[in-house]
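Data availability excerpt. The first of two example chains:
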Amino acid sequence: MSEYVDANRAYWTAQAPSYAESADRAWAAPEPEWGVWRIPESDLHALPDVDGKDVVELGCGTAYFSAWLARLGAQPVGVDVTPAQLATARACQKRHDLTFPLVEASAEDVPLPDASFDLVLSEYGASIWVDPYRWIPDASRLLRPGG
């Protein structure tokens, strides 16, 4: 992995304790909220119908977005490079009685099969913290035709 991947992991490991409380609030929110302004999905309509869809979230952090997708009927998989963030996600899964796979990996090199998802997204993680020339091709590899 790239040197900056190690730097990102170290940064998010240090930040993980401060995200635990906000993660629990985000997991409890009634619908997806977008960005720092927390605009409700019901106002934006940015997501397609995800019911029954296989979705992977790259750079999921505490996986609150994957939790929202699961409640909308998707089968999400959260991918993040930081074990401490994934530990928070697992704790939230237990508190909110909602489970889905969480994979420790960089969005540059996701250890999941080609063409296995209907939707690939990064609400914050990979889209900002990972080299777009590396994560976007891998995201494309993960998409099924028509995804």
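And the second chain:
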Amino acid sequence: MTDLPPGLSALADRYDVLLCDVWGVVHNGRESFPAACAAMARFRETRGPVVLITNSPRPRDEVAAQLDALSVPRSAWTEIATSGDATRALLAERAPGPVWKLGPDRDEPLYAGLGLAAADLDQAAFICCTGPFDDENDEPEDYRARFQGAVARGLPFVCANPDIVVQRGDKLIYCAGALAQLYESLGGEVLTAGKPFPAIYHLATALAETALGRPLDMGRVLCVGDGLPTDIRGANAQGLDVLFVAAGIHALEAVGAQGLNMPAIGDLLRQEGLTARWAMADLVW
């Protein structure tokens, strides 16, 4: 049973910590959502730490700078756990490589200090994917031929961002998770540390516990997110309560002219074998 609180304030006293998704809840890649930022800041002021838990393939400081540029106030969050930071442990195990870096140049900080040698695909020992080279135009099928060759050679595929798509402004763009799906469908080995996998939750809860200054009661941790295959599945796997923000990547199905489309939300959750204790169109206080 999914309940529909009018805002975060209606349930905040049940929780000591928020683990909050970023893209789709806090911003859309081009602008931040002031009401969501205000809700997070209010929770942090009155209840406890807000740890942003994001499938961004970048390290924490790079994400913090991006949030600053999008006018997300520092008062809205306490710490950041990124898929990039969780993935760096997988990459360090494979140093010195060589690695085929699949993704845009802006994700280069992921590799800093790891001692990995870059190589063309035909010389690489494994692939690390942060997304398509051109996420405004590329589609997964553009990589099929290259992936077939890599799978035939037995190259592992490290996925630094398990998101399938995110919304940038009014457009959905493919992420590394979509490429990982194709690679796996071709018979390749995919390694992932971000949501919905455990490593990033272990990182996030450790950061929350340090900020809280005492051991966590996992029954008093609330996950907030808009992605069923990542945010909701990950929270369910960890046994954590989850607030589904419906106006993110599932908005076309989950939100109608009259607000939340609860029958559609129920169908989406059932189809994926998932549950959400709470649902809102947007995160508000």
